[in-house]
Amino acid sequence: MNEFLIKPKIYFGEDALLALKGLPGRSAFLVTDQAMVKFGFAGQVTSLLHQQQIPCRQYDEVASDPDIAAIVSGMKLMDDDYPDLVIALGGGSVIDAAKAVMYALWHCRKDSGRSKPCFVAIPTTSGTGSEVTSFSVIKSRSEKLVLVDEFMLPDVAILDPQLVKSVPASITADTGMDVLCHALEAYVSRSASDFSDAMAEKVVQLVFSHLLTCYQHGGNLPAREKMHNASCMAGMAFTNASLGITHSLAHALGGMFGLPHGRANALLMAQVVAFNADVDGNCDTPAAHKYSALARLLGLPSDSPRVGVNSLLVAIDTLKQEMKLPANLQAAGVDEHRFQVCLGELANQALRDSCTPTNPREVSAADLERLLRRAYSGPTLNN
Q1: Is pLDDT larger for residue 2 or for residue 293?
Q2: Mean pLDDT score, 32-47
Q3: For residues 360 and 189, is the Cβ–Cβ distance under 8 A?
Q4: How far is CA 63 from the centre of its chain?
């Protein structure tokens, strides 16, 4: 028996933020960052809460790639005045931090008789899909730890495109490629199902139809809404089907070299697609057939698995070029000497990552090292 979990109630479209007016609560705890305070988005949230006469305490010191110290700080603040409503406003780092704060505090105080707060996630980037996933990524020294627990699934997700229309082009590119990677990896995952496949297929279509428009014309609200919805649907797909080694390697690279997560995925994605499809061999794996089906869905040549896979690889590479993303890790500024020194540890971290078991093709540390070397300076495509 299998299951497909659909947890959060989702509000989407223009003015979706007004859904906060209908939420019950006596007190709230807002997790956000300084950018949200600076741009006035945090103020919009607290104003709506105050209209409902809900007092709100604010933790606004979350930084990119939150570490354990940031989680402990949030726990202390939340513990001082325990709320019945927790709101995460920000990108994936903020939502992941809120999840970890709630999760850790709940386990520390599980015998206190407290009820679990209603958890509301409001994403301000279209990338991680964290607003509908049971995943949280927290940094510990130079390693990213992936926590997975249904406890961390938000109860409500609010997708308001007004909150993402001012996202800079470079971040739009990085986060958009993260969305694509989520869909591709969920689609070929060992735990994929008809339900996750349906969402992944729609996400791939939306990304190739709207991401470049968002990159070139950030104020295009209809395109922003489509990408915001795609990010959410990709999150729903992978929280059920999990991911693969693109994410495992990206987690390792991000932790050790500080690469933005979406950019790391973009730099690794095509290499992993080629590996999973066995492009260097017969190109007749189950993943190759599914990638070819995606190519056909996009109207690309797909007369055989090899043709379809190569069509998809060309489409990925073209999208990267049009958004001026670096071609490889070297072009992204990863120091060659340090990369060579860290290569074994990067592979071992990726091998231990919780996303690796659901990759469609089994991998060894040697396979992962080979993929990293190719991603460092080699061409994106494998013909």
Answers
A1: 293
A2: 96
A3: yes
A4: 16
Residue 102, C-beta contacts closer than 8 angstroms, at least 6 positions apart: 78, 86, 116, 117, 119, 151, 152
For all residues of the chain together, what is the average pLDDT? 95
Question: What is the model's pTM?
Answer: 0.93
Residue 68 phi/psi, 5° resolution? -65, -35
Encoded tokens for 136: 């949280």
Q: What is the distance between the alpha carbons of residues 338 and 328, in angstroms, rounded to a whole number?
A: 16
Structure confidence at residue 378 (pLDDT): 72
Among 210, 319, 225, 302, residue whose Cα is nearest residue 265: 319
Q: In what order do the strands lie in the sheet with 9-12?
A: 9-12, 156-159, 118-123, 85-90, 28-31, 56-59
Residues 178-215 as b/e (b if ≥16 CB within 10 A, e otherwise) read bbbbbbbbbbbbeebeebbbebbbbbbbbbbebbbbbb
Residue 204, amino acid: V
pLDDT digits (tens, 9 = 90+) for 41-78: 999 999 999 999 999 999 999 999 999 999 999 999 99
Tokens, residue 67:
């570490």
Of 255, 235, 238, nearest in space to 352 by CA: 255
Rounded to an integer, the average pLDDT of 124-148 is: 92
Question: Crossing angle, helix 92-108 and helix 68-80, to 10 degrees?
Answer: 60
